[in-house]
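User: Can you predict the 3D structure for this chain?
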Amino acid sequence: MLLSIHHRRYEVLRKHLRAIRLTAGLTQAELGARLKVDQSYVSKVERGERYMDVLFYLDWCRACKLRPESTIVDLIKAGA
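Assistant: Here is the predicted structure, written as structure tokens:
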């Protein structure tokens, strides 16, 4: 089953990603620099205009100095 980026589960993911970034105390520009993407790319991911794959999720968590294996538990509990 392929889900649209507008599906409720992706909304949960987007909120989760934003929370991770904010918990790390990073702006979109700072996170973008760590990920080697533009600030606008981070913004588009958080707004649901860009797709997030598992590899980019791992990079996002690590760029925020968080362990992906810990954050994924929170994502699952949130309903993704």
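Residues 37 and 72 are 22 Å apart (CA to CA). Helices lie at 8-23, 28-35, 39-47, 54-63, 68-78.
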